[in-house]
């Protein structure tokens, strides 16, 4: 009896797998399929195969899983329903049912959910019209992976082109399922370097309510631009543009321009900056820096991220540098301007300036090095109010003598000739000598005693000075430095300055500085600052400064994670000399992690500036800006970023 049933079971499986082999072989030439199922039924006249129970299929480089699948060869159609999972390359779609056309490789999904990291698209009906093209109806779009997402965009119809873009109209932004904003149009780039939009609402004491907006766009693979469009209720509209480019070792640079006409004062405020570096040939390099302002306080008003809040001086230049092994040539055009009453004016101009200097060259016969420099300039100064041609020739000799294991003497002689085409046609000749004696009693302890003397031939001495510099590094964690000197001409002792840096651990440091007046026999200043932790994670810094006779300042800053989702940052400067120990600068930032969003509140209080603003940013938008805005390169032109 047992053998009878064993024979029936074996016969059934033989028929089952033979039937599958017949269907599979019909696709072997062009469209081969592999499939597994608990049960299968083949209808020969209709060339139709029905598969039931935990069906898995491989076809056209796709994977399909479902409870039930029907393959119709004549209709070039595959239908599936029940827990459908369709995977194509890096795309994954789950649905209630699917109809797939094997000829043109299109598909229809009912109640489908498409995953294309980091996005999730759910739709009542979804059509695959091309390899990367989809059209969906009754769509819900989000980056939140939860079954009940924290936020989503809801639209009737949505067009998707994978690795390219998402576009739709009449969109509702819903947070926690509640519709909050209506958008007539929504577009999202899916390219690796995509457009970025940043909006910062806030309130400032000077500008009132404002919206600061920044749009970043990748113009090409190696360039990107930013558009600034700011609305300030009291001041009006501010507009600006920034363009950054980087072509590896060939050229890089940045242009920034911003302008606003203040409606409450009817005054224009603007700033233009341009920085550029390029290697014209293997040995010829071009560098330039342009900085134009129409008000010294512009950065403090409209460009507050700049470390230099007030610019009483601005410098611009264009320079060509040509370098060989032994010498370098430079041609410079430069303007140095200074704020005067209500505008910037040129105080010093080089138009142009030519410099040639050699590297120290070893003499073949004598134990010394020599170098030469030549400086030719057409120089304008506000003091004289005319251009003056100036030349300076310098010739230097340097040698080194090892007096002992702990003493090294390095003497230097410099001869220079200066010629100025002023009304008196002056030609001045100078000579300068310098000597440095290094005393190293220990390997990590050294003292440098320097002496310099300079005078004009036939006239009085210009420099007669001795200096001291000491350094001690007993371990990698400790670095102590000291400096002082004496001027024989003025018969004054220079201040005695000591600096100590201590790194007890990787994320700990202490800096101590003291300036002592040898002339007045009193301390002029004390400074101590200690830091603990990492800036982005957990960080604490305290600094105290004293200036003679009675100025005391306290600097403090910290980053502290309150909970897993809350983080607070604080930076402040406090004047302890005033009554009430007043803070005259405060910057506070409060960050809330909302799973797929980041909410930031900012408060800034410093002289002439009081403001509060916030930002609500998608995490994927922040990640996108990392690839769009090359921060490491931007810091070359904007070091505070």
Account of the protein in words:
- The chain is mostly beta strands and 641 residues long.
- Among the domains are: 1-116, Lipopolysaccharide (LPS) transport protein A like domain (lipopolysaccharide transport protein A fold, Sandwich); 128-190, no CATH class.
- 7% of the residues lie in helices and 67% in strands.
- The chain contains 4 helices and 41 strands.
- The protein has a 26-stranded antiparallel beta barrel. Strands 1, 2, 3, 4, 5, 6, 7, 8, 9, 10, 11 and 12 form a 12-stranded antiparallel sheet that branches.
- The longest helix has 25 residues, at 2-26.
- The chain is elongated and about 120 Å long.
- The termini are far apart.
- 12% of the residues are buried.
- The model is unreliable at 1-30 (pLDDT under 50).
Layout of strands and helices, then pairs:
Elements: H1 2-26, E1 34-36, E2 39-43, E3 48-59, E4 62-72, E5 77-88, E6 91-101, E7 106-116, E8 119-128, E9 133-142, E10 151-161, E11 165-175, E12 178-189, E13 196-204, E14 208-220, E15 223-232, E16 236-247, E17 251-261, E18 268-279, E19 284-293, H2 298-302, E20 313-323, E21 327-340, E22 343-358, E23 361-362, E24 369-381, E25 386-398, E26 401-402, E27 407-420, E28 426-442, E29 445-456, E30 461-472, E31 478-487, E32 492-493, E33 496-505, E34 508-517, E35 522-533, E36 539-547, E37 551-561, E38 566-575, E39 583-593, E40 597-606, E41 609-618, H3 619-628, H4 631-637
Antiparallel strand pairs: 1-3, 2-3, 3-4, 4-5, 5-6, 6-7, 7-8, 8-9, 9-10, 10-11, 11-12, 13-14, 13-41, 14-15, 15-16, 16-17, 17-18, 18-19, 19-20, 20-21, 21-22, 22-24, 23-24, 24-25, 25-27, 26-27, 27-28, 28-29, 29-30, 30-31, 31-32, 31-33, 33-34, 34-35, 35-36, 36-37, 37-38, 38-39, 39-40, 40-41
């Amino acid at each position: 009896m047992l053998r009878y049933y064993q024979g029936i079971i074996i016969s059934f499986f033989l028929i089952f797998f033979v039937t599958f082999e017949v269907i599979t072989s019909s696709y072997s030439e062009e469209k081969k399929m592999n499939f597994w199922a608990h049960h299968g039924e083949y209808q020969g006249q209709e060339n139709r195969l029905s598969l039931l129970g935990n069906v898995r299929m491989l076809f056209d480089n796709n994977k399909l899983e479902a409870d039930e699948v029907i393959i119709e060869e004549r209709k070039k159609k595959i239908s599936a329903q029940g827990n459908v999972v369709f995977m194509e390359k890096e795309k994954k779609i789950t649905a209630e049912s699917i109809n797939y056309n094997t000829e043109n490789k299109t598909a229809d999904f009912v109640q489908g959910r498409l995953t294309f990291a980091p996005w999730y698209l759910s739709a009542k009906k979804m059509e695959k019209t091309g390899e990367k093209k989809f059209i969906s109806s009754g769509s819900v779009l989000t980056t939140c992976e939860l079954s009940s997402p924290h936020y989503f965009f809801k639209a009737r119809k949505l067009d998707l082109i994978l690795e390219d873009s998402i576009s739709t109209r009449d969109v509702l932004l819903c947070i926690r399922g509640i519709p909050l904003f209506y958008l007539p149009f929504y577009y999202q780039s899916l390219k690796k370097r995509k457009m970025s939009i940043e909006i910062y609402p806030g309130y400032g004491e000077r500008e009132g309510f404002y919206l600061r907006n920044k749009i970043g766009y990748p113009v090409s693979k190696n360039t990107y631009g930013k558009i600034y469009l700011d609305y300030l209720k009291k001041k009006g509209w501010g507009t600006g543009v920034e363009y950054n480019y980087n072509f590896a070792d060939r050229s890089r640079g940045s242009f920034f321009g911003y302008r606003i006409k203040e409606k409450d004062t009817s005054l224009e405020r603007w700033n233009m900056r341009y920085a550029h570096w390029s290697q014209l040939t293997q040995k010829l390099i071009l560098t330039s820096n342009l900085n134009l302002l129409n008000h010294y306080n512009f950065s403090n008003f409209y460009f507050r991220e700049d470390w230099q809040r007030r610019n009483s001086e601005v410098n611009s230049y264009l320079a060509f540098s040509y370098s060989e092994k032994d010498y370098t040539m430079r041609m410079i055009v430069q303007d140095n301007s200074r704020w005067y009453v209500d505008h910037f004016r040129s105080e010093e101009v080089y138009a142009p300036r030519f410099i040639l200097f050699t590297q120290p060259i070893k003499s073949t016969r004598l134990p010394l090095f020599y170098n030469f420099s030549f400086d030719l300039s057409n120089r304008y100064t506000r003091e004289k109010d005319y251009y003056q041609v100036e030349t300076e020739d310098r010739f230097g000799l340097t040698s080194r003598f090892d007096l002992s294991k702990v003493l090294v003497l390095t003497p230097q002689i410099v001869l220079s000739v200066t010629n100025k085409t002023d009304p008196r046609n002056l030609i001045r000749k100078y000579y300068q000598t310098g000597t440095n004696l290094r005393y190293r009693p220990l390997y990590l302890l050294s003292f440098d005693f320097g002496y310099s003397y300079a005078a004009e031939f036939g006239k009085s001495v210009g420099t007669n000075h001795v200096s001291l510099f000491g350094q001690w590094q007993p371990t990698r964690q400790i670095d102590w430095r000291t400096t002082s000197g004496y001027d024989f001409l003025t018969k004054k002792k220079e201040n005695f300055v000591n600096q100590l840096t201590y790194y007890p651990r990787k994320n700990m440091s202490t800096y101590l500085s003291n300036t002592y007046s040898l002339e007045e026999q009193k301390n002029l200043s004390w400074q101590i600052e200690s830091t603990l932790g990492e800036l982005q994670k957990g960080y604490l810094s305290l600094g105290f400064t004293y200036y003679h006779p009675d100025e005391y300042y306290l600097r403090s800053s910290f980053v502290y994670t309150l909970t897993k989702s809350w983080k607070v940052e604080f930076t402040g400067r406090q004047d302890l000399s005033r009554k009430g120990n007043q803070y005259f600068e405060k910057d506070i930032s409060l960050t809330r992690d909302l799973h797929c969003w980041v909410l930031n509140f900012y408060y800034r209080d410093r002289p002439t500036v009081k403001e509060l603003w916030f930002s609500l940013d998608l995490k994927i938008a922040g990640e996108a800006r990392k690839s769009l805005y090359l921060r490491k390169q931007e810091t070359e032109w904007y070091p505070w970023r």
